Amino acid sequence: MGRTGIIVTGLIGIALVVGAVIVIGGGNNKKTDTTSSQSTTSQPAASQPSSSNQSNSQPTESSNVISYSDSGFSPGSLTVKSGDSVTIKNNTSQTLQVQSNPHPIHTDDPELNIGTIEPGQSKTFTLTTKGTFGYHNHLDPSQTGILIVQ
Hints:
Number of helices: 1
Low-confidence stretches: 26-61
Shape: elongated
Mean pLDDT: 73
Number of domains: 1
CATH architecture: Sandwich
């Protein structure tokens, strides 16, 4: 194979990778704002590192709750208003890692890059970026959900 054949093969390979990322990630999200804040809530006796944008506290009552079970996220789609808080509860015995689409680069909405939620714990975060955004369990990318922020 000559030099030209190697270059063409390489370009085809790159095009296939880019195409796969676009197909898997959807690529039809709208963004209008990028302000974000996150907070962590956990059950008693669980320890988490503290940081400036996360705090340990008891979960607050919220109608914007997403439960994670062995079968995935419920509800699968949730509509909230910009500025609303959302709580994700991990009701499994496995660690959950919530990240925005597309997998594995997580660039659609950084507000959805929640990180890990240990079994029995929850995390609450505030959404301010308007649009429709997909998210997934990074540890099992087939488990997905959608947040619509108005």
